[in-house]
Amino acid sequence: MNEPLLKVGRATISSTEFFARARARLDFEVPLGLFDPHIIPRTGDSGNDRMLEIVAQEQPVRPAAVLIPVVDRPEPTVLLTQRSPHLSSHAGQISFPGGKIDATDASPRDAALREACEEVGLKREFIEPVGYLDLYGTAFGFRILPTVAKVKPGFTLEINEAEVVDAFEVPLAFLMNPENHQIHTKEFRGIDRHYYAMPYAERYIWGATAGILRVLYERIYLS
């Protein structure tokens, strides 16, 4: 099922304004729900909220961190990856650099930076973290805390094919244009829940990645 969103206009703010808004609206306070199963991340969708309540009762919380790398080009882009097909979860899907938070990580931000380096070779000297986006829960028990970051051009990537098979950039303007935000419906134990998809050329961006991008749009463009 594919339902059109309300036409609320194209994303027209400049790169400078995007990062200014992100710095003003985001911070590095770690939400308690990242580790506490009794605090359910709310999505605004009753089906998704009920699903997350059920998952929290049945599965242990799996804290994770991802990096939203916004490359500061004349026309800004977002760096995404395609996960390796043999991985045990989300195999072959489009994702942000990231993964589970290790005990040795100083913070979720450090976990996201570490994973970005391990997966695609994106070095920390090119990355300026801006702040955490809202906590995002998934049907697999993951609690994902995204770090929005400004990335300086000039980096060279080294793909770790054990984890990802490709890395590519998508224009920020495309991802922040609500006309590209498709809504689909999926059933979870008799409950209808909704998820976003943002197809771009041959890339099918959906699920948690598209959901997090939608949250970014709502926080930076609608707030």
Automatic annotation (TrEMBL):
Q: What are the residue boundaries of the Nudix hydrolase domain, all occurrences included?
A: 61-192
Entry-linked Gene3D superfamilies: Nucleoside Triphosphate Pyrophosphohydrolase
The UniProt entry, under InterPro entries, shows: CoAse, NUDIX_hydrolase-like_dom_sf, NUDIX_hydrolase_dom
One Pfam family, short name: NUDIX
Q: Which UniProt keywords apply?
A: Hydrolase, Magnesium, Manganese, Metal-binding
Q: Which domain of life is it from?
A: Bacteria
Q: Which cofactor does it need?
A: Mg(2+); Mn(2+)
Q: Does the keyword Acetylation apply?
A: no
Q: List the PANTHER family.
A: MITOCHONDRIAL COENZYME A DIPHOSPHATASE NUDT8, NUDIX HYDROLASE
Return the protein name.
Answer: CoA pyrophosphatase
Taxon lineage: Bacteria, Pseudomonadati, Pseudomonadota, Alphaproteobacteria, Hyphomicrobiales
